[in-house]
Amino acid sequence: MAFFVLDYAIKIFAIGFVPEGRRPSSSTAWLLAILLLPFIGLPLFLLMGSPQINRRRHRIQQEANDAIEDAHKDVTDHPFEELEAEVESIIKLNRHLTGFPAVIGHNLGIHADYRKSIQAMADAIDQAQRYVYVEIYITSWDETTDPFFQALARARQRGVEVKFLFDQIGSLKYKGYRTLGKRLSEIDVDWRLMLPLQIHKARFRRPDLRNHRKLVVIDGERGFIGSLNLIKREYKTTDRYWIDYMVELTGPIVVSLQAVFAVDWYTESGEYIEMLTELEDTGETPDTNYVQLIPSGPGYSTVPNLRMFISLIHHAKSRLIICSPYFVPDESLLDAVTTACYRGVRVELYVSQRADQFMVDHAQSSYYQSLLEAGIHIYQFPKPFVLHSKFVLADPDAGRADPEETDEGIRLKSHPLAAFGSSNLDMRSFGLNYESTMLVAQGDLITEFNELAANYRAVSHELTLEEWNKRGFFRRYIDNVMRLTSALQ
Question: What membrane topology is annotated for this entry (predicted)?
């Protein structure tokens, strides 16, 4: 009798409290877990679903937002060419949610070759004179990443300050983790774990949170941002190879990159890093881009990356490119993507033929039916490669946003936009991961990412609705079960 009373008490409690402040998909998933398995679901919810556990990080993030806004209060959003009102509204949205202005960034190249990306960062570190700040989700000192760490060692020998952040859970399962901290200390690198689970030190946090950012800042003048982790291309497999990129930038945008690192370093160490204000710019050159950094994560209650992605999707007039290893949309994102297709936009989705995670692979593919029926072109990057690159392009082939005359009257040409960085288009990246995404409002980065997408398309297989309808019952069942788990927060 007592068992049934407790069982119903848990369910009644859950129905009244779980939905508070949550998206419907998340509430439904948690309620399903609690109602079916109350004695397992409720402890998991209290462990991973309660926002109260993150109170300290929310406070630090709010204080950081205030400091960033104050540091940038005199920095105006200055494009080197006048932008249309719709693009300016997206920039205004991002600044309101994060405090970061849109500034100039000079594109030094998209490094899309795995080893060459690591070497490019090592080469830049060899030029450092004052400091190097590194924040990478997965970090492993192996034969592929050794040139990077040797560059850090040389920097320390020159007296350059080096600070390094890496995610504990993200790095834990890879070879060499147990000795990684010791090796970093041996080369005199000041390092910290991001989001550590250190119960013995009275440090507890939700075990489902991750700091997924990938940033490198050198002397406050040069920065890298992208999708690449510091680990060999095979990770710990023997039959899969990751496809990634890093973008190298100079100019005022590096101030924003350093600000994100400074906040994360303070959160984990309690130590302040000088908050830069505005860097002097060398002026407009062919590599000049108008960019804006959008950090996101559990410290932000407004999901700025999701809102920015949806804004880009609604902005597209003729062509939309989405490249994400994990495409598990919530209702708003799914509606935006399919609506774009119904508006006549050609929508291209680039994913791996086989993702590296079983649950995500099946949760993602559970959406293929509705996507294909809407007319979306799904391109699958072939095995054994894992397409880990993340970016979104809206009308990358368009020119200036000048009006043009058609038989139907005056029509505005679309303004090309791009967004790239560490964020996937899945519910984890929107609610559980700390991410860093860069909006490109104008510049040659849009063209280069369009060319990168074309390279991916040339080797990919386009999935058709006829082909997808041939999948078996068991595949459909597993996909749908995994779909239910994707919204748990």
Answer: Multi-pass membrane protein
